[in-house]
């Protein structure tokens, strides 16, 4: 026996013959603020740290560890993630782990400022290992071992933060990347300590140095003094102008010949004969063989058995001091800077 049909259900809004209409919209109160979205910049030139011999003093200064790697801007966009070098080159494919992690952060839009590094067993950044993971200067390897030490947030969920003070930008960054996070994107934590004390501890642990940042400063591109770097060991970029040959050394390189800038000219600052291994020396020799020239670009004095090259390659050199006649003391080769990194060449005063 079939069940008789039930009573028709009540219509959602009264009479079925009455057309459905939404409630009339109220007029917007002119006093109510409007929250417009800022256009997302395609690229922001980085804020650079000014080298100082000692840490600044005052409550407005925040301190961080100085990382030794490649400066990157990570753009999180609705269309995906882009990773740009300091020179504006797209290196998203070179840092796949960082790109994948950025896509999982939960931000609709953001621009992270940070340093891509490879860490050693003690958690210190190792520029040489980073270079190896990327295949050397001009290499095309993907660095799966790299992590991004993020230290600033320049754009977040539709809002340009560049004119906002650092303390607010850091607060928002820490809401996105939790302190102590162990992943391909980590927070470069600020350290609540006296600058002199922190520098001493950093040097004792073999770190490159520290960074001091004005908590009240906006984000300004260039080297304007809002950020200051203080180094334990001097490390700067110098142009390679040639090398002295040696049959007993890796790659046949006995000693690199180096130059710094002074105004519009180059000045010879001595050489470096340590810091190479078989792989780095072979890569370096391959790069230099493409640039050989008959006469030196800079006066180096009399050099026996020397090969001169166009001053196109920037080497990162670690050194302890300068001699009285303007040459590097206790220098050691750390690696070649890539063109995309736009590393600066040391400027003599």
From TrEMBL:
Classification via Pfam families: DNA_ligase_A_C, DNA_ligase_A_M
Catalytic activity: ATP + (deoxyribonucleotide)n-3'-hydroxyl + 5'-phospho-(deoxyribonucleotide)m = (deoxyribonucleotide)n+m + AMP + diphosphate
EC number from the UniProt entry: 6.5.1.1
Residue segments, region Disordered: 1-40
CDD domains noted in UniProt: Adenylation_DNA_ligase_LigD_LigC (cd07906), OBF_DNA_ligase_LigD (cd07971)
Residue ranges of every copy of the ATP-dependent DNA ligase family profile domain listed in the record: 148-266
Alphabetically ordered keywords of this record: Ligase
Keyword ATP-binding: no
Gene Ontology terms describing biological process: DNA recombination; DNA repair
Keyword Ligase appears in the UniProt entry: yes
Entries under InterPro entries matching the protein: ATP-dep_DNA_ligase, DNA_ligase_ATP-dep_C, DNA_ligase_ATP-dep_cent, LigD_ligase_dom, NA-bd_OB-fold
GO molecular function, one term: DNA ligase (ATP) activity
NCBIfam families hit by this protein: NHEJ_ligase_lig (TIGR02779)
Similarity field: Belongs to the ATP-dependent DNA ligase family.
Protein name in UniProt: DNA ligase (ATP)
């Amino acid at each position: 026996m079939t069940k008789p049909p039930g009573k028709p259900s009540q219509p959602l809004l009264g009479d079925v013959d009455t057309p459905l209409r939404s409630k009339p919209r109220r007029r917007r109160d002119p006093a109510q603020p409007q929250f417009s979205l800022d256009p997302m910049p395609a690229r922001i030139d980085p804020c650079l740290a000014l080298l100082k011999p000692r840490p600044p003093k005052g409550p407005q200064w925040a301190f961080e560890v100085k990382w030794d790697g490649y400066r990157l801007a990570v753009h999180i966009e609705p269309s995906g993630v882009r990773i740009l070098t300091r020179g504006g080159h797209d290196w998203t494919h070179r840092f796949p782990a960082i790109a994948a992690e950025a896509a999982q952060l939960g931000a609709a839009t953001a621009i992270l400022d940070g340093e891509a590094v490879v860490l050693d067993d003690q958690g210190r950044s190792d520029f040489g290992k980073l270079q190896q993971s990327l295949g050397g200067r001009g290499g095309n390897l993907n660095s799966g071992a790299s992590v991004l030490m993020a230290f600033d947030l320049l754009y977040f969920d539709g809002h340009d933060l560049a004119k906002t003070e650092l303390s607010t930008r850091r607060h928002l960054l820490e809401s996105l990347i939790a302190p102590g996070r162990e992943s391909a994107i980590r927070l470069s934590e600020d350290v609540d300590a006296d600058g002199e004390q922190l520098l001493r501890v950093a040097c004792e642990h073999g770190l490159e140095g520290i960074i001091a940042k004005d908590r009240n400063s906006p984000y300004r591109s260039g080297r304007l003094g809002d950020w200051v770097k203080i180094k334990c060991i001097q490390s700067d970029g110098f142009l390679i102008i040639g090398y002295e040959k040696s049959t007993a050394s890796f790659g046949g390189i006995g000693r690199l010949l180096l130059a710094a800038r002074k105004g519009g000219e180059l000045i010879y600052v001595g050489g470096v004969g340590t810091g190479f291994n078989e792989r780095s020396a072979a890569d370096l020799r391959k790069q230099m063989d493409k640039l050989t020239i008959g006469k030196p670009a800079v006066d180096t004095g009399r050099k026996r058995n020397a090969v001169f090259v166009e001053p196109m390659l920037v080497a990162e050199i670690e050194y302890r001091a300068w001699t009285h006649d303007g040459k590097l003391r206790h220098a050691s080769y750390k690696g070649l800077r890539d063109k995309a990194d736009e590393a600066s060449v040391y400027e003599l005063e």
